[in-house]
Each structure stands twice: as C-alpha cells, then as structure tokens.
Amino acid sequence: MALLDKLNEDMKQAMRDKEKEKLSVIRMLKSALQNEAINHGGELSPDDEITVLAREMKQRRDSLSEFEKAGRDDLAEKVRSEIEIVEDYSPKQLSDDELEEIVKATIAEVGATSKADFGKVMGAIMPKVKGKADGNAVNKFVKQYLS
Fold first, then answer.
1. What CA–CA distances, in Å, run from 82 to 63, 98, 128?
2. Consecutive H or E run containing 12
3. pTM beyond cutoff 0.90
4. Mean pLDDT, rounded, for 86-109
5. Taking a C-beta distance cutoff of 8 angstroms, is the pair 101, 109 a contact?
6. Measuring CA to CA, which of 69, 94, 97, 144 is 20 to 30 A from 37?
7. Which band of pLDDT confidence, cut at 50, 70 and 90, is reported for residue 1?
8. Total Cβ atoms within 10 A of residue 54
9. Cα dist. 120→27, 38, 115 in Å?
C-alpha cells in the first residue's frame, strides 16, 4: 500500500475516533507529500516519500530541542506526541550498534584514514541509511572513528 493511501485510511479512522492531534499530523504529512509530488512533477518514489518523512521528523526534532531549551514543556510535549505519530509512518530506525557497523564498513570501503576524509565518508553513508538514521548520530560515529 502506498504511503498516501495509508495516510488516507488512517485519516478517516482518526476522524471516526475523533483523534484531533493524530488527524492534524496526518494532514500535515499528507500535505507535505502532495507538495513534494507537485514540485517533483509527478508520482513520488518510495525513496522520495522517505525523504519527505525524514524532513518532517527533523523539523519536529529541531522544534523539540528549541522548546526544551526555552523551557516550554507544554509545546515540547505536543511535539513529542507528533514525533511518535510520524514515527509510525517512517521506516524502522537503525539501532546504535547497526549504525556503528555501517559506519565502520563504509570507512573501510572508502579507505578513510583521517578527519580530512569526513565528507567522503558521510557522502557514502547517508544514502545507505536514508530515513533510517538521524544525520547527527551518523556524524557522531564518523567523527568518533576518524579521530
């Protein structure tokens, strides 16, 4: 089932169950996917859908950190629940151990030996973990193994 079809079904169910917050998040995701399809000029591939979901998740994580820094627990709690809903539609996230193995393998694959190779390693890893890992976590592991 395509992601838009799943969102439509879940949106109808959220309306029936009167789940306002879930409905709101589903509508935002659906809108983001439709806007991307318009910009893309046609149907989105599964990779494009994952890219849109990852972008939405990143926006929410950034908002969460900003709200926590500002001491706005009310807004932070709302964003946390939005993140949980977006996670339902995102691919399963890699564990730290799985991510660490991918980083080690990629460093060996590209022959990186120093911090100067950081960009080369990141460029090789990110397509492999697209939508399955946070870029900051990847960045942390790459820096750890290149230092």
1. 11, 26, 26
2. helix 3-17
3. no
4. 87
5. no
6. 94
7. low
8. 19
9. 37, 32, 10
